[in-house]
Each structure stands twice: as structure tokens, then as C-alpha cells.
Amino acid sequence: MLGRGIVEGMLETARNFLGSYVSRERLTTVQYPEERLAHIENARSFPFLVYDGADWQAGMRCVSCQICEKECPPKCIYIEKSVDKKPDAVGRPQNYPKVFNIDVSVCMSCQICVEVCPFDAIKMDVEYELGAHDRFGGLLLDKQRLSKSNEYYHRIHPTEAAAVDAALAEERAKMQAKQQAAAAAAAAKAAAPVAATPSAAIPSAPATEGKA
Amino acid sequence: MTRAVAVDQMFVTLNHALVAYVPAVWRPLASAVLGVVTVMVVFLTLFALTVLLERKGLGRMQNRYGPNRVGPWGILQPVADGIKAIIKEDVVPQSADHAVHFLAPVLIVVAAFLNYAVIPVGRGMALTDLNAGVLFFFAISSMVELGVFMAGWASRSKYSLFGAMRAIAQMISYEVPMLLAATATVMVAGTLSTTRIVEMQATYTGQIPHWFVLTPWGFTGFCLFMVAATAESNRSPFDLPEGESEIVAGYFIEYSGFKFALFFIGEYLGMMATSAMAITLFLGGWSAPLACLQWFPTWGWFFVKLVALLCGFIWMRGTLPRLRMDQLMNFSWKFLLPMTLVNLVATGLWRFLPVGWERWLICGALVVVPYALLGRSINWQGRKVAVRRYRYAE
Amino acid sequence: MTIGFLILAIVTMAGVVAAMSMRHLIHCVLALTLGFAGLAMLYLQLEAQFVGLTQLLVYVGGVAILAVFAIMTTHSSEPVARPGTSYWLGGCVVATAVFILLAHAIEKSGVGARTMPAAPVGGVKEIGVALMSGYILPLEIVGLLLTAALVGAVVVATGEGSGKR
């Protein structure tokens, strides 16, 4: 009969209306500034630089290899290499970036920089509330703003961070083993020919250290 | 009981007291001006309330909160909307007809406000007591269509012109069932004066009032009148003229700022005016639903009924999808118009049959059987709705 | 000759004169609608409520809409060029002569000397009773005429559609 569908529809909306006052789970709205939805682990917004330990300058993993700058499709990364060196995450002395800027108004969150970084130094952040009052300068993030601690990385991407930490620990262990072996070999070499050719043994030890 | 009467006649005595300060020559004019200003203020406040009710109500029906940021529970949202409308830039297209473009919303709002002159809001509280009040109401309602045309034409845009043509076609087609549905009440009441119609319905047998909606012809007439009123004020599900503006353009697409707000004021005021006329003709105007509830002031009952009908409009808007143009036209000419004519016959029979259960049976059958038959025949030229077979997708 | 009558008369005359002299056709129709509304107000001022309101309902709400629909659908909306006005002096002379002739004839006939009869008590009820008792035949004939017009319009519309196919 004409009108039956209309009446059924109106009963449904009446149920919605009255039910929305009675049961809270009908209203799926998240009241944004007061409540926020939790992010899933694979969420990503813009890149950030990871540092180990407490000092963000000393513990920064980035060695300024500039691979991410070359691979970035919209060319939003700008890196200036330093002149001096400091030890990196594994222990070797490496250059570090004097200037590292990412323009987040250009960045398209493709994660290519993360995929190509050989040092696990740049990872994807999940922060999206990056509104600025300055259209150009305010959206250019510099080295200090981009540096966030390893604990923060563990908080936002736990499984990834655990895997990265395990890999880095393995490399550190290998490096230490190598250094110990090299030191033992150097000590053995230094002990053996010290009677025969004392002048030839000294130059060889710093050479092997530098190469490793 | 005298205290209830004093509260009931509060506004009338206030009017007399204020007018007494004016010299006797100017008294009729002062009384009229006072009444007009009161009507404008009251119905604009009711417009703000309707906007709020609609947004919150639609939100809850759609399982979400309505606006809840502006005041506590969002009650200051109409104020925010009004400020936004006023401070927006008024953009007029360069090739538009400036005079007509300016006058179109003015005409719509003036016609919408004029409607309230004959509505009896309380006992003795109609602005004017015209002998042909119902006819005045429909005459003024027909002026709105001219305003719609002016808005669509003056914008000099193809889409707004087509939107205006469709809007006018819709409004004209639904004016006829609205008039005929109201004619049923006029037949029984024997007068076109709105105050007399309400006074006739304000009598009681026991506790039940003599409202016309409590009869078979009155109930049918009320439903037909409300459907036609929804279409007259371009409300969903008949909002093709204004819904088109979301998709392509409507007749007010070239308006911005306060003129846009004026169109919405005109639409909502039209909705409230036709609800008020439906209350006057069918729901007993300012009379209470039960004889024991007469202590509540009459203007209070009128506004309770008005808000109830507005909630009905909002409920329909939240439930039903929009009708297409051809469905709209079919519905008006092939269903509503024959139903109103059948209703007129039923009303006539009711008037002349003796009081008793026979007239209920005859008039009820005379209304229900054509409804079922017409409803069956309106299924779009006999096309059966069947499960679709997709030749290539399976 | 009250102030209300003067205002309404000026408004009506302004609307009608504008309807004759405006360049754009739609402006002419809208000015004519103002003239119709002014006429309706004059009827209402004479206490003829039914006639005045029916004038509004039918003329403003029906005839004006019909006129604008016709103009809209035939696209005859471009403003016409002002025609040549080389004969305006002869036109003025002829109009003045006709006016003098008519004024003389009306004054001579003694229409102005008649007394105004009392306004009849003509509410809606009396009109309805008169239509149903004394004027029933004209009512039925007008109804027949309107039905014929409606049927003809439907036939013309559907006939065109099937003819095109």
C-alpha cells in the first residue's frame, strides 16, 4: 500500500533519534580537539630523524650520505654535509649533517627516504597537527625539529623500532668483535716483529685501523 | 479561572495599555504597527529556533551530534549563522539585472510575512479579521512564485533559469491540491474567516474537541494539505529546486551573503505559515486538545502545535530521499488532485448525512478505497519492479 | 479622494505606464504585475474583499506567471531597438484631440451628476449564494469552457509528442 515504506522509514529515523540519547555507542563521532582517534601502527605523516641516547646532536644516526636527498621525488630534503666527523650509531666516525631541512608543504609522505636509508636514521612520524602561521618558513622543518628520540620511535612504531634496534645491536656486536680481533692481531703483530723491524710495525697499525 | 484568562489575554491587554499612550487619532495605526512588529519579532525568533532544531534533530536522526561548539549544546548556532551571513561579501554577477536581482528576495520575504496577518495565534489575537482570510492566505502564497521567477531570471545564468522554471512548475502544481484540501474545511465551516473557523473547532463534547482532523475527511484533508505544503515551500522530499543547487545550480545560486539568508528565511517562514494555516483549518487553532487542559494559555497551545508540525517537517526531511521532477509531477496531478476531489465528495456527504456511525463508515470507505486504488495505479505506468539481471557483469 | 486612494492610484498608473515604456520585456511584465497588484488593492479599499483577493490570486499568481513562462520559453527577451520617433508631434496632436472630444462627451452626458448608491452588502457568502442560484447557467458554461481549454491543451501537448516520434 502506498505510504508503507514512508512509515517504516520514519519509524527507523525515530529509533535513531531516540536511541542516540539512550545509548552512547550509536554516536560514532569523535569530538576532535578533546578526543583523538588512536593511530594504527603503519600510519605515517612526515619524516623525522632518530637519535639514540639523551643528546640529540651526539646520538644522531644520520651520516649525511645524501641518498635520501637524491631519491626524494619532490626534492623536499636539503642536506649540507659537515666537515668534521663524529661516531655514528655503530661506532665508526662519520660525517654528520650540518643542515638538514625538510619542507613538509612539499613532502608527499611516500616513505622512499625511509626505504633507501642504509643507516636507519630517518623514519616516518605520525604527527599531523603541523599547522603554522607562516606559509613558507613555518612549514620548513630544520634539523632540531626533526630530531626525535629512539624512545619516541619505540612509542609510535613498536615492532619496527624493535627490529631496527635488534639489527643495530647485531652490527655493533660485529663491529666490536672486529675491533677486538683487529686489536688482538695488531697486538700480536706488534709483539712479534718488535725485535726485527721496529720502524715498519708502527705505520701498519694506524693504517688497518683507518681502513676498518 | 480568571488568572488563566488573564494570562491568556496578556498580549491583548498589553497592546491596549501601550496604545493608550498615543493620541486617539493615531491609535488604530499604532495598534497595527505594534501587532506587526510583534509578529515579525516572534516569527524571526521561531525561525532561529527552527534552524537550530533542524540541525540538531537531523544530526541525531543520522546518528551524529548536531552542531555543539557555539553555545552550551550549540544553542547559539543561529547567531553564528546570522553573523556569517551578514559579514559575507555580496557578490552580484556583472551581467545580472541588478534591480530585479535585488527585489526578488525582498518580494519573497514580504509575501512570507504577509501570510501571518490572518492567522489567529490566540483567542482574539489575529492581526486582522478578514472576511475572506483563507483566500487572502492563498493569494499571498501565490506571490512567492513570482519572486522565485525573478530570482532565477535576474541571475542571467542558464542553470538558475532552469532551476527557477522547475521550481515554479512544482509550486503551481502543488498549489491546486493545497487549495482544494482547504476547501473541504471551508465547506463544513461555511465561512472563509480564519477566526470563525477556529472558534467553530474550539467547542468540546466531554473531553474531545471538535477539531476537523478527528473526522475521516479532516484527517485526509490534513495529510493532503501537509504534503502539498511541503512541496509549496520546497522542503525535502520535494526540494529539487534547492537540492539541485548542490549538484548543478538552483534559482538562488548567484546570491551570497545576506540575500541567501533571506531566501532561507522566506522558505522557513513559508513552512511555518502553511503549518499555521493547517493548524487553523484542521487542528483547531488555539484550542486545547482536551477540555481539562484549557488552563494553559491559547497562544501557548498554538505554539506547541506549531513546533510539533515543524518537528514533523524535520522528521520527514531526515527520512525521505528526494523526488525526481517527473515523479513529483505525477504525484501531484495523478494522485493528490484526484484524492482532494474524492475528499470533497466525502466532506459533502459528511455534512449532509445524519450524525452516527453510518457517516463514519461511508466517508471512511469513500476515502480509503480510492487511496488504495490510486496508490496502486501510481506505480509508474505499470512497470513492475524486478530483480535486475546484468548481462556482462556476471 | 482619500490619501490611500491617491497613493494606490499613483502606484497603479506608474506600473502600467512603466509596462508600456520599458525596454526590456521582462521588466514590462513585472511592471504590469505591479499594476495588477495596485488594482487588487483598489478593490480591497472598496471593501470588495472577494474580488480583490481573487484578482491577486488569479492575475498576480496565474496570469503573470503565464506571461513570464511564455517569455522564458520563447527567448524573446532581447531588448528591442527603440523605434523611429519621427511622428511624435502628430501623435501628440491626435491624442490631445481625442482626449478633448471624450472629456466633452463624458461631461455632457451627466454621469458625474448621479448620486453614488450605497455599497451593497456583498460578502463572500452572498456571492456564493448568487452564483449557485441566480447565475448558475453562466457558471456552468464558464466551467465547460475551461474544461474544453484544458482538454485541448492536453491534446495539443501529447499530440505534438506522438507526432514528433
Supply the key terms.
heterotrimer; B: 394 residues; mainly alpha; 15 helices; globular; C: 165 residues; Four Helix Bundle (Hemerythrin (Met), subunit A)
Descriptive notes:
The complex is a heterotrimer of chains A (212), B (394) and C (165). By secondary structure, chain A is an alpha+beta fold. Chain A is built from seven helices and six strands, in the order αβαββαββαβααα. Chain A has helices at residues 4-22, 67-71, 112-116, 143-146, 150-156, 158-191, 198-211, and strands at residues 47-51, 77-87, 93-103, 122-124, 140-141, 147-149. The model of chain A is unreliable at 203-212 (pLDDT under 50). The relative contact order of chain B is 0.12. Chain B is globular and about 65 Å long. The mean pLDDT of chain B is 88. Chain B has one domain (90-377). The N and C termini of chain C lie far apart (62 Å). The mean pLDDT of chain C is 85. Chains B and C meet through helix 6, helix 7 and helix 8 of B and helix 2 and helix 3 of C.
Quick structural overview:
The complex is a heterotrimer of chains A (212), B (394) and C (165). By secondary structure, chain A is an alpha+beta fold. Mean pLDDT of chain A is 87; it is low at 203-212.
Task: Write the SSE topology.
The complex is a heterotrimer of chains A (212), B (394) and C (165).
Chain A: H1 4-22, E1 47-51, H2 67-71, E2 77-87, E3 93-103, H3 112-116, E4 122-124, E5 140-141, H4 143-146, E6 147-149, H5 150-156, H6 158-191, H7 198-211
Parallel strand pairs in A: 1-6
Antiparallel strand pairs in A: 1-4, 2-3, 3-5
Helix pairs in contact in A: 5-6, 6-7
Chain B: H1 2-8, H2 10-19, H3 27-61, H4 77-87, H5 98-114, H6 133-141, H7 143-154, H8 158-189, H9 194-201, E1 204-205, E2 208-209, H10 216-232, H11 240-247, H12 258-281, H13 298-319, H14 325-352, H15 357-377
Helix pairs in contact in B: 2-3, 3-12, 3-13, 4-12, 5-7, 5-12, 7-8, 8-10, 8-11, 8-14, 10-12, 10-14, 12-13, 14-15
Chain C: H1 3-21, H2 25-45, H3 49-74, H4 88-109, H5 124-133, H6 136-164
